[in-house]
């Protein structure tokens, strides 16, 4: 019997979006390195091929409610077969966050759209890890704010 995660992974790896990113040189906006050392270079189209999520929330870095869309971090990691217990996030500007997977993934959205438009590097993109800060006071802490890394370009998973 095929596990749902395995079926999702197979569908993702065989999807045209992943083939485009790997074969046509489409711009990679996020690299995910799983605990087995596999490098998954993802384009926006590859992220769009995964199950989508989104929410509207206020942030401490922007004015007014912002609409974010992307892939939940736990879904992204499951889709890629990542099962490690530690995650390192890296940004284009050199910022890094090291956390246990358990502490990081709950409620985290790997967002590539803000207010319906792709984010540029100058505008906290092209990928921003965000939480629905308005939904729960637990998402309005210094630790969560530190986890909310913009210009996210690398996720590394280790045991």
Description:
The strands form two sheets. The chain has a five-stranded mixed beta sheet. Strand 1 and strand 2 form a beta hairpin. The two termini are 26 Å apart. It is built from six helices and ten strands, in the order H-H-E-E-H-E-E-H-E-E-H-E-E-E-H-E. The protein is globular and about 40 Å long. The protein has 159 residues and is α+β, with helices and mostly antiparallel strands.
Blueprint (SSEs and pairs):
Elements: H1 4-13, H2 16-23, E1 30-33, E2 39-42, H3 44-48, E3 53-57, E4 66-72, H4 73-79, E5 86-91, E6 96-100, H5 101-105, E7 109-114, E8 117-118, E9 128-130, H6 142-147, E10 152-158
Parallel strand pairs: 1-10
Antiparallel strand pairs: 1-2, 3-4, 4-7, 5-6, 5-10, 7-8, 7-9
